[in-house]
Amino acid sequence: MLHRGSNVSSSGVTRSSESASANRIILGENLEILPGLAGESFQLIYIDPPFNTGGVQARKTLQTVAHEDGGRTGFQGRRYKTKLLAESSYRDRFEDYLAFLAPRLEQAHRLLTPDGTLYFHIDYREAHHCKLLLDEIFGRDCFLNEIVWAYDYGARSKRRWPSKHDTILVYVKHPSAYHFDSEYVDREPYMAPGLVTPQKAARGKLPTDVWWHTIVPTNGHEKTGYPTQKPEGIIRRMVQASTRPGDWCLDFFAGSGTLGAVAAKLGRRYVLIDSNPKAVEVMRARLPADAGVEAAGVDTAGIDLDGLDAEGIAAHGADAGDGDMRAFDGCIT
Question: pLDDT per residue over 153-174, tens digit each?
Fold first, then answer.
């Protein structure tokens, strides 16, 4: 069971704690939330962190205040306006990227069950650097697979071989005592069915470490409009192989919530974390209604987060100020 921690005010008064066995969506910075989750709680962790593209990343600090002529509408129709307090940027260099990832991957290692599995999704430009980092944190003997997700979409370069794949690095907590159920994985057709028996052709074959799968179609039923959305088909294979019914799954760069969508369909439980209010809004619209929403670092006393949209969460958080903080103490029993 996932227990939600107390609300702790700046005065040190602890409000009553409530338990929640339901799936959770958490709005907040993952590195602030992860240390409060109990160790060895999650059977599977899938993360698709921002890729290190070499571009300039910008971060804006905004202040939101109640104002009758404000341009934003929040909780219960209240109007708000925002003003820019500061803006900072940094070049997304290789050294900065690994420093960004390292403490989060250390938390992932701590949070995995003894037979748990990490699926780390990255693009070809950083896969080799990230593997060295993961070898340090998990140990080289805990490296299980390099999965290549191959797709055929988008522009094609005429000056080199077109890049049409992502890399998924798979690490386990223990080098031999890990859970992997190949019989539960959906099979795929043989590429040359005439070379196998009719029985084998009818049953299909197990996927290899090269997964040919389309991206999310622009007019498909899965499409949420979130820019980094991944197809359910590739996440489904991970959950089928590396978890059992009822197990907990974690994605702390949750984006559109694809892991949660797959986990719900397969009878697994999930915790999804993202710092983008828009992501939380997309997840609430996409996922079953039993997934509660929490805002880490925001005083949400008396607010029905399950029925609140992302803009309302952000507005209420700004209205609350810095005095009250929610400490998310997760433990699974």
Answer: 766 778 888 777 889 999 999 9
State how many domains the chain has: 1
Q: Which residues does residue 2 pair with via DSSP β-bridges, in sequence order? A: 332
Q: Report H helices in the chain.
A: 30-33, 94-111, 127-138, 198-203, 232-242, 258-265, 277-286, 310-320
Task: Tell me whether residue 332 is in a domain.
Answer: no
CATH code assigned at 56: 3.40.50.150
Contact 320, 303 (CB under 8 A): no
Establish if 148 belongs to a structural domain.
yes
The span from the CA of 262 to the CA of 239, in Å, is 8
Per DSSP, 33 falls in state: H
> Using 50, 70 and 90 to split pLDDT, how confident is the model at 21?
low
> Which domain does 55 fall in, by range?
3-326
Q: What is the DSSP string of 112-133?
A: EEEEEEEEEEEETTTHHHHHHH
Report the range of poorest mean pLDDT among 16-30, 136-150, 280-294.
16-30
Backbone phi and psi for residue 36, each to the nearest 5 degrees, phi listed first: -85, -5
User: Does any domain span residue 269?
Assistant: yes
Q: Is residue 145 within 8 Å of 209, Cβ to Cβ?
A: yes
